[in-house]
Amino acid sequence: MAERTEGERLTELAKRRGYYFGSSDAYGGVAGFYTYGPQGAALKSNVEDAWRDRFAVQEGNMEIDAPTIMPEPVFEASGHLDGFDDMLVECAECGESHRADHLIEDNSDLEDAETLSVEEAAERIADLGLVCPNCGADLAGQSVEDFNLMFETNIGPGSSTAGYLRPETAQGIFVEFPRIKEYARNRLPFGVTQVGRAYRNEISPRKSIVRTREFTQAELEQFVDPERDEPDLSSVEDVEVLLYPADEQQADDGDYVETTIGAAVEDGIVANAWVGYFLGVAQEWYERIGVDVDRFRFRQHLPGELAHYSSDCWDAESEVDGDWIEIAGFSYRSDYDLSKHAEHADEDFTVFRQYDEPKTVERAVVDPDMSVLGPEFGGAAGGVKQALETLAERDPDAFDADEVTVEVDGESYAVDTDVTNFAVEEQTESGEHVTPHVVEPSFGVDRTVYTLLAHAYEEDEVDDEERTYLSLAPAVAPRDVGVFPLVSNVDELVDLAEDIVDDLRTAGLSVFYDDSGSIGRRYRRQDEVGTPFCITVDRDGLEGDSETTVTIRERDSGRQVRVPVDALAAELESVRADDRTFADIAAEYEEVTNA
RNA sequence: GCACCGGUGGUCUAAUGGCAAGACUUUGGCCUUCCAAGCCAAUAAUCUGGGUUCGAUUCCCAGCCGGUGCACCA
């Protein structure tokens, strides 16, 4: 037992107890896809609900639900098409993989090797006599492989419209921004969330549900005015966090920085206040759902890891089996995403921001006489008009001369200044269009679930016997409570237990009824799936004149208290909602000491 | 994708070129006791395909799945 790693024991338990298992096993299985069993589906759904509550409801944000398939142009705009279309060539000697396009570009005057087909790239490599940069072996004859991490599909019959399964949920939000901003009444800041599946055709899925080809993300896109909006840090400034900044990672004796969100933002460790705000929110949220804070940190991206548009990015990481796994990313993305879509799509991805006072500005304008330009320039007239408008904005002085010259498609056109109707007009501007900046907290739901299970996995000894239990937080545990009659051959006990099951289910709790085998066995069963409480109906609770009582047993400690039947639903709900703890309940009622 | 190792009931293991064994779990029955240990019974497995062989779960090859390392993770 001791030799098996945490991950192996977890995988075994997950399979046996219905948390998750490899999909399509009946057909040999398929790498990178997992099915959540009854417990896992409930746990995951509880995690998603908890995330929704914190990042959508409590923040006053909007949630949308976009399709998982989107047409090709979306990913042309987002950069995923190019970004994923890497050509790799592998060295036969040392096994190292290299970007084929980069190798060719570095060793020839070709600038756009990315546009080559894989066959052409392989030919170039042979022609240029390229060798492996790692070991120097000849790369000629090695096949060049196309790497597209997006799943491609066809939309509709035939194959006219190419589509892709989204590699992240975020694009669904960015693409719909022009309409969503209307729902936000064009006022920044506002946040949009989405919880859903995303797909990446990973080369090598690993580590059970940590790296899969289909996974669930919970993402928030916070749209802010970069010049005006500041987060309200007051609610998180005292939150304590363990930071691992880039410079500490690079230092020989690099160490963590234990600080508070307020101090980290003030000291500039976390450069962006919005990022800092969400780190604080996330820290508290992770704690609440049961992440072990001693095995949790925020790690800053190293300069080399940063996407070129991102000025600061932090990952939330949890420790499992000595490895740190990324469970969320907090990225300042500037206006990159919306600007990209604005370039490619025919919609307005800006928000109109009104000035405090309308401004009067002088603006140079032209109103060319097309009845002259048309006959004179023919088909180029339209282009000339546009060029004149641009010129008036950029260089109004040019219109002081009798004649202005503009270039359209390489041709020069001279226009009589009178014909342009150049004028400097006073205009009233009430505001301006701004492209919002984006702060993106992006959570991996599956990895969060994995972390919760790994951090909840406990083994201890009760009466010299080994016990395995999942110390899951009541807020996310798949089952809220188990209900047992102490023995199954006493009708009174069974009847009352069944009544309690009905009552608790009516109250919205997830209840598991069990009357088979010894009571200890039933407790163990629930311990292993992580049910936080078990209610046992015994004779003692039915005797005497006072109200009927049953015992509630707490999973981690095994402590029991005797609680009136009428109080059960309210007590259990309050614990699930984090309003009370078992200790509060224990203090209020009589503790059972036999056992 | 490469390399190495592995793949037997739900789970963990055993064994075997000739009827595949055990433990735990599960289910039914008995029992009735607050922490998996009682009794009886039942269900349930050799990853897939090809080859060698009279016969393959076993040996060989390929694939699939899993673990580890490398690479990859925009």
From TrEMBL:
Record GO terms (molecular function): ATP binding; glycine-tRNA ligase activity
GO biological processes: glycyl-tRNA aminoacylation
Domain Aminoacyl-transfer RNA synthetases class-II family profile: 8-478
Keyword Nucleotide-binding attributed: yes
Matches recorded under SUPFAM superfamilies: Class II aaRS ABD-related, Class II aaRS and biotin synthetases
Localization per record: Cytoplasm
Enzyme Commission identifier(s): 6.1.1.14
Alphabetical list of CDD domains matching this protein: GlyRS-like_core
Ligase keyword on record: yes
GO cellular component: cytoplasm
One Pfam short name: HGTP_anticodon
Main location class: cytoplasm
Domain of life: Archaea
Keywords assigned by UniProt, alphabetized: Aminoacyl-tRNA synthetase, ATP-binding, Ligase, Nucleotide-binding, Protein biosynthesis
Family in the record: Belongs to the class-II aminoacyl-tRNA synthetase family.
PANTHER family xref list: GLYCINE--TRNA LIGASE (PTHR10745:SF0), GLYCYL-TRNA SYNTHETASE/DNA POLYMERASE SUBUNIT GAMMA-2 (PTHR10745)
Record-given protein name: glycine--tRNA ligase
